[in-house]
Design brief:
alpha+beta; Aminopeptidase; 2 domains; 5-stranded antiparallel β-sheet; globular
Length: about 300
């Protein structure tokens, strides 16, 4: 068996093409068993051309040696590629417009009252103010300094590149006001007896916006994204056992308390009032249903260039 090579390819084609989804271009993760990077590139270009698309850029091409650092989406492509040696495997899709291009992994969601959007420079100030509020941070180790808050934003941005998802800014659609953050993240801390890697849904709402159901509204959109875009089997949520407000949100989201998985948070001092944490879980109701293109992983036969007319 040849080694598997993977890469991220930017393709363009008709806006009504099944991959384009109305965009002028798209990024697709592609993988194939190949001898080297050049062979992967050649196979992808031939396969895309036969499907009515053109490859205009390729990056992150690498032979898969260490899988642990790959994002979940690339791992899915990798698994399929190993099952289908004589094929190019592609997916999932990330679209963007070439004018004012936005990073392809930056997601945007709309709910009745919220816009969940990528981070902008102007968000750092209200985010830091929220993190410095003792009431908002009651169930954490303590309020954050400005440096700690900015470091958190940097981690979120890095997670988008690594995993394709992270925390989004929650903005009120009516006024454009900063309302907090809501999103998904791969858990940094290992919860005993919980299958890893685990993905959690989380939120932090500005004090003046609390009590309005925004966390529940945004949380539903994010869980839908987890199940129907990233096709995760399950999502979890954690909070301090005493945080009844967050626990009510988890219940409204349809999450079930897994009391046997309650744990002492490793980043909280052992004697901290809120060191004990509880875990809730929700499973994808359709975990085995094949996703609809263009977001699903797709297996395509390798095109034979010798049969093509030039």
């Amino acid at each position: 068996m040849n080694p598997v090579w993977v890469g991220r390819f930017e393709v363009t084609g008709p806006r009504d093409h099944k991959y384009m989804n109305g965009y002028a271009a798209a990024f697709l993760w592609m993988a194939s068993q190949a001898r080297n990077a050049e062979q992967l590139r050649e196979r992808v270009e031939l396969t895309m051309r036969a499907d009515g698309l053109e490859v205009i850029k390729a990056d992150d091409i690498q032979e898969v040696v260490d899988e642990t650092r790959l994002s979940q989406e690339v791992k899915r492509v990798l698994r399929e590629s190993r099952r289908h040696g004589d094929a190019v495997v592609c997916g999932p899709f990330h679209g963007f417009e070439p004018q004012g291009r936005r990073p392809p992994t930056m997601l945007q969601l709309k709910t009745e009252r919220l816009l969940l959007r990528p981070w902008q420079k102007r968000d750092r100030d209200p985010f830091a103010a929220m993190n410095a509020n003792r009431q908002v941070m009651q169930y954490f180790v303590g309020p954050m300094t400005r440096r700690q808050s900015d470091e958190a934003v940097d981690r979120y941005l890095a997670a988008f590149e690594q995993d394709g998802f992270s925390f989004l800014v929650a903005e009120l659609r009516e006024t454009g006001a900063f309302a907090g953050v809501i999103g998904l993240q791969v858990m940094h801390d290992v919860v005993p007896n919980l299958q890893q890697p685990a993905v959690e849904v989380g939120w932090r709402i500005a004090l003046e916006q609390q009590g309005k159901g925004l966390a529940t509204e945004g949380g539903k959109a994010v869980i839908d994204l987890a199940f129907n875009h990233f096709f995760l089997d399950e999502v979890v949520a954690i909070t301090a056992t005493a945080n009844t407000a967050s626990r009510r949100v988890m219940e409204k989201l349809g999450m079930k308390h897994r009391a046997e998985l309650d744990f002492d948070h490793p980043r909280m001092p052992p004697n901290h009032l809120y060191a004990r944490h509880t875990l809730y879980q929700i499973r994808n109701p359709k975990p085995h249903q094949p996703p609809v293109m263009p977001t699903k992983t797709r297996v395509m036969p390798i095109r034979d260039s010798s049969k093509e007319t030039r």
